[in-house]
Amino acid sequence: MAELASRYEDFVLHNAPQISGLESGLRSLTYILPGRFQDADMASEAIFATVNLVSLYHDTILSHAALRQQPETPASKFNRYTRYMLRGGGAAGGASAGPYRRIAYTLTIVQMFEVLMEMAATKLGGLKGKSRAVLSIEIIKVLCRTALFRLSRNRMTMHATVPERDYDLATVEPPSAVPESTTWTGKRTGKEHIQVDQITKQDKGGYDHAVQYLLSKALTESAKTPMDLLRAMSGRRVLGEWMFILRPLIFVLARRKLGGMSYKPWLISLAMELYSLSTSLDLRTFSFRPSLTMLERDEYKRRFWLLLYYLLRNPFYSHWTRARMNAFVDSAGRRPLISLFAGILRDYQPLWEKWHFYTSGY
Fold it and tell me: Residue 159 in contact with residue 151, Cβ under 8 Å?
């Protein structure tokens, strides 16, 4: 088994550009499948989830090679933080990276397959099966996020727990094409560093690449380590983060008790989310607190956008959004270009109406 995995890793390293094209093609296919034939939605979701899982595995193989070969590529604040946490740099109590990494990847994989699992449970067990699957998945996600929140010493939970792909697969070269001595290891710190001649040599852009590399390492805010990109929470922000973590589970539990067309679960969920978001604001100016880092502000901005999902959740969707969406689709269907968007909207509309995780938002 280990030999087979080693051969596949070697295949990936030698065929990175072709793999990139294949991943993109399969993802594009999933956008046009819904509504085309019976069980097309499930087939589309199965392809999409599987491609994402395989891409995640490919990233574990290719990201290290890409970082070594493209040292001048700036790393985003999000990737700096998540890579540091996965290496165990921020583990509470000096713990190893193992628990944090395992939980982070478990949460990522569950999020990839949650819609597919909901569809499969519905097909096998009907509405009861769907209800049990949704509740079970939300419990697993809450447990994972709770563990990550504690292991990170009360730092906010990000929209993703693994690094995003910040390199071009088409530019990753196989190991045989890369000089062996491209790095050196510091004796005191044990950290691996890129050799200066690998940054400045002419075939990599010379002086311009050297400047770009140095700028990518420059700090644009007071963050001495990746841990400073997200600061430990205290006071109201801790309570707000707990509400944000627990909100999806409480919403599901309230709907099971009060029914899907009751406004109480919808209002409880919205109130929890609004309180959580309010802890990021200076209520005198209704702007972000000055103490928030740029990465924290970016995450809160994303959470504000997630409020739009409330337009697609019942009972608000059935009472207000659906009629207006149908009117837009009907009117746009007679206009060039816009009709294409309207057609995609019509194909995906049943998915929003039927599946919980399409509109859960978190």
Answer: no
